[in-house]
Amino acid sequence: MWAKLRYKGIRTSKERARRVIRENSLLAPQRAGNRHGPKAHDGTIATEVLNEVWGTDMTTTVTTKEGKAAVFVAVDHFNSECVGIHASKSQIRFEALEPIRQAVREYCGGFAEDIAKGLKIRHDHGSQYMADEFQDEIGFLGMTGSPSFVREPEGNGCAERFIRTLKENMLWVRTFETVEQLRLALREFKKTYNEQWIIQKFGYQTPSQAGKDACKNPKRAA
Question: 53-210: what CATH class?
């Protein structure tokens, strides 16, 4: 909220903005959580360049009048940009590949053997992602699978965090008549998120702005 005020030319301090939000009961609830022991993964999953690791995941929390739908996403680990998004009635491996196919066409300039050579795909151990067909297709594109640690969902945290944002801003607050309506809404959300969602670690830039800055800086470009 503080960053959005600055975009509109309203200068104030973070502490004042937080106080006003708190006084109006607008702060998001926080869960304290439980202490855990040492983790298998204690480092960062963020990358230093674009198109080095794409995280992919799915959620099945959407219900349309046609029945339950699965939503699949792909997110760049550098600037948290959504590079692919898809909805389907089924949860099979071929549907899980669709966000990757979208991303390859848009960010790699086509769809061919080894066109995305060296890029890693971070995913969990779901049957869709561990299936031979999924692994064979990303291998054909030159990618390698990078499964997160078992029982350590933080390893796929970029995709997980995007899905949480998607749920809070669309999936939990809107209803959809059909899966096709949901699919079109997801594509619009992808565009809005990439161009308008503000991320603190990039100096309150959007994913698209952070990606463009990286391309201008050779040290941070893919």
Answer: alpha beta
